[in-house]
## 1
Amino acid sequence: MTPLLSVEALRVDVARGAGVRILEDVSFSLSSGEAVGVLGASGSGKTTLALAMLGLLPPTLVARGSVHFEGHEVLSASRGARRAVRGRRCSIVFQEPLTALNPRMRVVDQVAEVALAHGERDGRRARDAAVQMMERVGLANAAAQAARLPHELSGGERQRVLLAMALLLEPALLIADEPTSALDVTVQAQVLQVLRAQQRERGMSLLMVSHDLGVLAVLCSRVLVLHEGRLVEDAPTRQLLETPAHPFTRAIVAAVRRMERPA
Amino acid sequence: MAASTWHRLRHDGAARGAAFVLGAVAAAALLAPWLSPFDPTAQPDPVALRLLSPSWAHLFGTDPFSRDVLSRVLHGARVSLGVAAGAMLLSVTLGAALGALAAVVGGWVDAAIGGLVDVLIAMPRLLVVIALVATFGTLSPWWLVALIGGSGWLTTARIVRAEFRDHLQREYVLAARALGATRWRIVWRHLLPAVAPQVAVAAALAFAAVIPLEAALSFVGLGIQPPLPSWGNILLDGTDYLTTAWWLVLAPVAAVSGTVGAALVLADRLRAAIADEEREA
Amino acid sequence: MTPLLELRDLVVAYRSAAGVTHAVDQVSLDVARGETLALVGESGSGKTSLGRAVLRLVPTTSGTVRFDGSDVLALREDALRAFRRRAQVVFQDPNASLDPRMRVGDIVREGIEIHALASPEQAELRVARLLEEVGLTPSDASRHPHEFSGGERQRIAIARALAVEPEFLVLDEAVSALDLLVRAQVLDLLARLQAARGLTYLFIAHDLAVVERIATRVAVMHQGRVVECAPTAELFRAPQAPVTQALLAAIPRIDW
């Protein structure tokens, strides 16, 4: 069976910066229903990797190599083809839920917009579906919250709105870029639960990017380690925790162990 | 990498061009006595040499009194730019000081300055200045600087107050307070450098506004009085002969629009540099 | 021995259009010399307001703050400046807490200048030593904050705080914005500095996992109040308040 997502020899360079390489020869694949973590420090290129999966790189970056999603090449796809995939078959959630929302638009309309952009004609039906999805991702009192503007919601509530947008059309793959690092720990735990439920119930695949090994270990069965633009390790989570191979991974695992075991 | 606003500006072609134009105009003004081919007030032969069209001897022709237009515009630059620069300095300093005071001291001082700004901003500036000039009769250039500068500080005060209040909330100012820094140290070391680019924008815009204001006042006969040349009164002299001796207005119009245009371009590029820096920060 | 810091019935209230909010509500706490008291709570629990009120960076409504026996809220001018030398702060976001227009050397030197602690030549030497102490190099003094990584910037902020040789540091989410590995390194640095300089820490965090290793005791805040305060091991073993239990349960635990 062909994998849902397969990345081969992906390289990303800064367009005008001579020799500034952000990602170097990254290859991996992700099967349907699998949850894979990408572990990396800030500046490791992990956000660039997440954006490249959807063909969302800014024009200042140039990508080479190939990214195949559901058998189609993403990097060379036409704009229209990419748009047809985004939000419907593959979505993304970011770290900062405030800047990812339009400040002057009711949140329900922003969620419903995803359906309207992908062929839904009936505005009311789109909004009903939006409210339903907001409920499913655990937004308390979703019917009332729906009519609010982003700044009237808490950080955790905004992140759920973004999740509802990403999950509305039940995509086959969700890419999550540090989706919980701006949130309180108890809210983080709830969001992780929603992601796990979506993944288990619908068989959705998950590519979760984070610097926090603890968060990845909770959700992902496999972890890729990105260090200075290179994929230095790709192993089942269990194995990564027990026998980390690369020095960077070893340092992180040691730091996590020490943090959890007070002297 | 976030280079500073000033660094960005130095590497901006349009900004460098505008700065060059302003520098050239300023140099021309300073060196007017040596650059001018003729005495700007001399009337060598009001009959034979009047209203000569441009030639190698008189690049921009002569006026009805046989004076060399180029020499007059060069000397006029001293007056016009001097008044504009003086008024700009006065209004920006006054605005920065009052805006800073309002933000840092707060309370009734803030309310008083805010009230004054609200009242003054509602007045049409040109009309107020005209009314004052008309009341006091003709004015020396110094009075003109005081009047235009004294009425032009409102925008700067508003910008500085808003920026100061924003920065006062930031953690680097909080950290300085925690170190025991006095309010005035914080203003001097942290806040003024932070708002300097914004103030520079306001200054460039103020300069761009004052040049035509001085010209307008002189044009209606209330500004700089003849025989002292200014771009405004040279223009005034020229308009009577617009159909017969169009070259009379060519030089002053070019001087005013070139200078104002350069100042506006500089303000615009500065704004873009500030925006770039904020976006990358 | 009397505690270095004593808070009694401290209240910080903010007035807004929506009415009066009690960010800190009747909090009493002691911090002993040389210990690390962790103050943990979710956003909006009042922990940041409390940390700032202790340093008199925000106005307090009522209650007392005593530092080494003297009433901090009653200090005037010179006495307040003397207190600021003894009690310093490191904020969460080094992007916001370092003046982007200043060179690192000037940032670290500012406290030395304010309190006239050294001649210009001596100050330069002290800045160089401080930079080394926090794991940077003396030549970093001539660079600007944006040339450094997040962890390095936080080290600069720590050096700035240490420049006035304080006894007490408020660490306001000082490692929360850092990557896991960098966070561990900065926590190590803080532990080393505490041992070498005999520092007392008020360590503010939203995540119990972060404080487990560094804290002597933990106080948990919720809606402006301290709902539980106990020695670290005890609090992790037998959390009493529901809020503490929820915070503990939320830590993504790795099943080793």
## 2
Amino acid sequence: MWTVYRAPRTSSCSSASLAINAPLAIDWLVEFLRDELIRRRGFTRAVVGISGGVDSSLTAYLCAKALGPENVFGIRMPYRTSSPDSLRHAQMVVDDLGIHCDTVDISDAVDGYLANEPDADGRRRGNVMARTRMIVLFDQSEKRNALPIGTGNKTERLFGYFTWHADDSPPLNPLGDLFKTQVWALSREIGVPDEIVDKPASADLVVGQTDEGDFGITYERADRILYYLLRGYGRERLLRIGFPADEVGLVTKRVAGTHWKRHLPTSAMLSSTSINDFYLRPVDY
Amino acid sequence: MVFEVAAAQIKPNKASYDKNLARVGTLFGELHLGSPRPNVIALPETALTGYFLEGGVRDVARSAQTVFEDLLSVYRANVPKDADVDVVVGFYELADGRYFNSAMYATLSGVASIVEPRICHVHHKYFLPTYGVFDEKRFVSRGRTIDAFDTRFGRSAMLVCEDVWHSVAPTIAALKGAQVIYVLSASPGREFTGDEVGNLSRWKRLLPNVADEHGVFVVYSGLVGFEGGKGFTGSSCVVDPWGVVRVEAPVTDECAVQAEIDLDDVAIARAASPMLADLEASLPDIVLELERVSRGPCRS
């Protein structure tokens, strides 16, 4: 009787697809920050908007490791409805790392504008808050001769779950190619407090809001679908390896509907020297 | 013949040919003071400008003669007058009205040296990656030949990055008599699931395989540093004809690795494992097979 050893089938239940060598990836991102910020751009300081969530916490830990805590400035930017836990968690990060910290309350700036827009819905209000935070972040960076560092992860970038030309605008982003579940893995490895890693992710623009509630799918499940989707698996194959049709549809729709958010504005092309169409120079040229 | 080879990995200043040239000159000076002193120094792909230049290739490309003269100038400025060294370097080349991603093997010497400075060979990158993050075919022309050439330190060949990812390229180099293959690369790190960066794992399979299969030394020089978020995975190394890595550099640091090469090892390794001789014996049949394939897809 022959014994047959069979390779396991690809399965939607396996988390192997999202496995990451966290220590190796952390070392790489630390090198990325040092090289791009110091050597390429000539800065020594970084400004990070610390929300108290896991993305900005991990970013602060990476920056402190790369540049030294004395060169990292955490900026807390609460709005009057922000969760008190957000402020407290941000403070935990600041205290643990020994980085500088300032708090800039954006309530007056946001409310000053929205006073003339009483009909603004939650979406518009959230966008105004996100863009106000970027005004603060860039100005605080200018004030300190520092570079603002982005905190957006790959999952929210793919879902378009950010305000265009706000959260995505800092010139360097160490987390942009990490799925949310991988952000959690790196955060645990680098020492972000469990209380921050384990809490439900939230943009904290509306009281009680959670990312997964907004999406209608957990990060864990979304990331697995995204992993295969980006590698070229079609819908039929995703269903065949066990992903539910409604979840595949939800994720696919999110990605397909937000390609524009991952690009610069569209300029009309009139010449054969159109910038970024014909005239091509990389960002660090 | 016994000689010392060094493979240096550097972080180029983006598109700053003169700054990079000056740094290479400093490197020449420092390595000259080493003991033992290297006879051959290999530098990475696009070492004089950085790799991801897009349309900027046309701004920084130089003729091989210009690069040779510039290297000779900085060499002479940094070492004693009677010194000499061979150098392998990657650069964007302007030749015959076209741009290439090139590698040059040249002999450099001081004004009081009896060694004649000269360009030994220029290789145009044969396989241009144009997928994913790579876009080379858009900006440079592809090379048409893979050659071996005689140097003061044995018959050699140069391959650039993806050239080696196709086993046919080092095979041709070995069949043309190369005993040392210099591989210059700019390999951006990607995939962090395993014990080491994913592309590096592939290099670590490829290079010993090339050395072992053909009984050649492989000298690998990899670019380091980040360009637009893409970090190169250095890990320069020297592999002997049995496929054993003699020395290997770290992934991200600027540094050089150095090893002794005894070309007698080539014959010893090939005698023990005559893969190249077997290939040569079968070559007429292989050529026929390739001719059949080149006429179109084969389905039996």
## 3
Amino acid sequence: MLAYLARRLGYYVVLLLVAVCLSYALAATALQPRAYFEARQPPPRPAAVQAQLSALGIDDHTPLYDRFGHWAAHAVRGDLGRTIDDTSVNDEFGRRVGVSLRLLIVGTAAGTVAGILAGAWTAVRQYRLSDRLVTLTSFLLLSTPVFLLAVLLKIGAIRLNQALGTDFIQFTGEKTPGLQGGWTAHAKDRAVHLLLPSLSIGLITLATYSRYQRSTMLDVLGSDYLRTARAKGLTRRKALLRHGLRTALIPMSTFFSYNFLAVFTGAIFTEAIFGWHGMGEWLVASIGKDDVNSVVAVSTFAAVVVLLSGFVADLLHAALDPRVRHS
Amino acid sequence: MATAPETLLAGADQDDGLIARPPSRARVTLRRFAAHRTALAGLIVVALLFVLAFAGPHLTRWSYSDIDYTALRSAPSSRHWWGTNRIGQDVFAQTVHGLQKSLIIGLLVGVAATGGAAVVGACAGYFGGWTDRLLTFTTDLLLIFPSFLVISVVSPRLKGGGWLVFALLLAFFAWMVTARVVRSMAISLREREFVRAARYMGVGPLRIIARHIVPNVASFLIIDATIAVGSAVMSETALSYFGFGVQSPDVSLGTLIADGTGAAVTYPWMFFFAAGLLVVFVLAVNLVGDGLRDAIDPTSRPGRRRGRGAAK
Amino acid sequence: MNATTAGAVLDIRGLHVDFAGVPAVRGVDLALRRGEVLGLVGESGSGKSVTALAAMGLLPSGADVRGSVTLDGTELMGAGDTALSAVRGNRIAMVFQDPLSAFTPVYRIGDQIVEALRTHQDISRERAAERAVELLDLVGIPEPRIRAAAFPHEFSGGMRQRAMIAMAVANDPDVILADEPTTALDVTVQAQVLDVLRTAQRETGAALLLVSHDLGVIAGTADRVAVMYAGRIVETAPVDELFARPRMPYTLGLIGAVPRLDADAKGRPEPLVPIPGAPPAPAALPPGCAFAPRCPLAEDRCRVAQPELVEVALPEPAVAVRPEPAVAADEPHLAACLRAGEVAGLRPLDVFPVPGADVAAERAADGRPEGTSVLRVSGLAKTFPLLKGAVFRRRVGSVHAVDGVDLDIRAGEVLGLVGESGSGKSTTLFEILELRRPERGSVEVLGRGTDTLTRREAHALRAQVQIVFQDPMASLDPRLPVGDIIAEPLRAQRAERDRIARRVPELLRQVGLDPAHADRFPHEFSGGQRQRIGIARALAVDPRLLVLDEPVSALDVSVQAGILNLLLRLRAELGLSYLFVSHDLSVVRHIADRVSVMYLGRTVETGAVGEVFTRPLHPYTQALLSAVPLPDPVRERARARILLPGDPPSPTRRLRGCPFRSRCQVFAALPGPQRERCTDQAPPLAEQGGDHVAACHFPAARPVL
């Protein structure tokens, strides 16, 4: 079992290395930091631009493999280079990574749990009114792109605030700047700020999971072992909870990693729209600034997060299914 | 004896008279689909939206790029059906044009991605071995590779006609999950007896893939292509919203929504027509996909649906 | 009929079940007495399993159930879920068909039995776990304490079914319903499980309803039998009476359609009696007797009204054949047939015509034909790598699927290849069909060694060897019309278009199908017809050798007989040779000239059918034959059975010495010094007189029929 997980992990590391190399090659060839400096007002001297590019290690006159070798040599020691504004990528990374993770974790966790419960519930109540309502709502949510959902939530919040005449729902940034008060006030402030972004991530996760859980649960409902469970005298309810739900969770674990991929892309938009200074916003900004090192840093982060979620999915699968554990 | 044994004798070697001929598969699918009311509604909506997107531009005298300096930010009226934006462009003309672009991109991406997935998945699954390992690695790699990065870096640098490359890029990053499913279906098909039978008769591998494997995953592919159209439209609008997709002066639903967001509270017509059409289209496509799944998929038990009436 | 049957513990009255308006069960009355075993027989779709599930109240919610089910006088029909749950698993228990899917895959076997115990008894977890181990021990699971902690997928099929029985008897039920409990199992394992089931029933004194399609299983186990057809019981009687004097033409046909192991040694067995037609579709039942359209005895009055199930007058008193009858001797014989009185005393052949019976009987020639060799396999081996890991799969061992197989078929001969699942039969077939150099040993097809074939020669040779698969649905591409399916081998051999156009209708006619149906799709045909299509496809390129992989095991008995007769006819007409793979020894006895028995990838015995079946030399062959139930209650009860212990060892290890010794009854009885031969040397295939060969150090003929 441990050997199995170790092999999976090994495969992921190989995938990650290849993905990082490709990201670097792409960012370094497609982005044009030289043009970024040349477009500055007043126009700097070409020699100054050249000097700056060399200093940052993003000089397009140096061969690609030299630049990559230079970057990689630092990267293995944990130094991700300098941003185009000559600040440390590591510092920026450190500031932003927590922001993104808070958003991702809260949104996905809440959405996953709610989605699984909703899916199981609707499967049991198939074709009743409640099932139809939940199904329709999930379809509606699944048909709304994240960015649009985020914008709609924001518009809704503005309307609500206008109607109530307060600023109850805060949706810009992670916290109110310069807020006074004790830690409870700070915690409350953060929670309120977290509400809309988490909703926009969580609702879509909820919708996806409820659809999948509903269909795996329906498959389980017709299964032989559920019939056996009832044949030995469990009531329908008990049989569903003890035997049905538990087994229907197994296929969901594989699905976990695919969904996280979508969530991560969604988070880029969410951050940008709600003004969270996270990795997604950084990516959008650094592409605009032709900031090679930052772009590579964010891409690496994305690949790591996705692979980690794949690894977590493997762990979950093994934890849920003894057939994997014992083979 | 009332029945002479001789008459039975004639039929006895056939172990059966004939079962009454069941209706053809296509007809069954069609009937099951038509019985799915929401799916039928979805299909009608999709059809209407296509009509709107392609006939719409001819219904109004405004083109999407025309500017009416006499009407800036004007509310819907008989002159401008859906109002105008902040520089006096007709919102109806813009929206139907944007819809058209979004639909074309969505269709293109859906078909290309599903087709690619079918080829990669079927080959990986059928051939197995190193072909499989290589294709699976590529699939996994593209899955973790941030597609957003590639598209957002490449796309803004494309000039006119760039939307086509943009669409192909979208398709290039949209086939992996489908390919994985097709691969696992092909693996189980490879061991199925009719495929073995063909192999032992001397039918070549490419012919087996074309004649036995792909047709047997076709129903999944049809469903998947439908849903892929919906998600392609979502990706397209999302990227266009941030300026990484369709480039001005061309418009798509995404760019229109981006332009209208700021004015959504004060001048709602600039935002809600485009946003509404987007949601309605994707919703309709998803409903059609869901209905197709129920109608085509032999594993979706018809008893489930019929069971509802007889339940109590 | 009175409202309740005296002495019945479970009484089913007027049971009707509809699924979305389509009737599945149409008025079933069944009474189960304490301590008796009632066999419920019928073909697929006859409603036998639905009846059992309805008694438990376990049908899916879409089913419309009417009638009455009483347990000791308490009405169960219409009772709420809580009330029924208190009865299920406690007073009525059920054993299901497929033991793999019947256990929840994520819980340990022991825990699932504990759950059954603690649902109905107020005992501590420790005590329940203790009891679960005792139960597993009772059903003969070795090392029950360790096994209780195993997951379902770690059990073999036979062990799972035992565990299922342990769970069913956990709460000492009054009634056990067993739904096809041995259908998914090999014969030797089936014999073990039936034995356990009988023990469990005796220990608990419960009434047992044994649902099965297999007349042999019913004959050996049941006290009383009820026969179902199209949702109704058409005949019921004590087991001896029913088999000796069936009164309903359907029962008669069913008995005549079963190939029997015990045909006399020199003459060929009697021709099989196929029942013409197929059971009616439940949605389109005929107005009168549902069997009338297939019944040669049907008269006009049969087609008017459904005949009632009534007692038939006995022409003479039944001879008391049972040594100790478990049921009252005056048990009535009921039949739902207007001509029941006339049927008594008729033999299947008197009622059901068999076309081509003469052809089938014709081949009773003595000795082997002098024809040329069609297939010769010697020392064939095939190992599969045992892989681990999902991504970087690495080899951790080998599965010796085929490990020394010798086969020899001459022109016009039928060789039956027998063995249990996992014995390597199918792998042997596929290795032959690959037409390439085998891993070890040699394969010669029509005198050509496969190791030297060029691609072109191999392709040409493929036309000479064709295959018919087990599952006619799975072996026909559902997306192609039948005409294209049959034409595929012709196209693969690049036949001309007009030859294909000529050949397809000719082939359909040859296998007894209407050429006009060439444009239909496989799902429009019944199971038997689909298998005929499979045979037509195999015949398309005029092969010399047909390889048949369990061609009738997916079919109902009455249909199976038709296919076997067709195969016999085609062989006589076209001079074909067959390599006929089957786990069913009765079928092999019926169709084959010679038989070859496999165990753990090796040939252990080969010889003429009559010789091997009457004088089996290898202990495995003896056990195998002894495990096959005979559809004859009197003979079946009189037989001594060799019960093999345990399951075959894993083919991942190659044992030194004889691979069968761990389960061998001869080895177990040997004195110490002689045992060494078995543990040290693998016995070679040695001639035992004539062309009868067996791989045993101590061969001794032992009749087991």
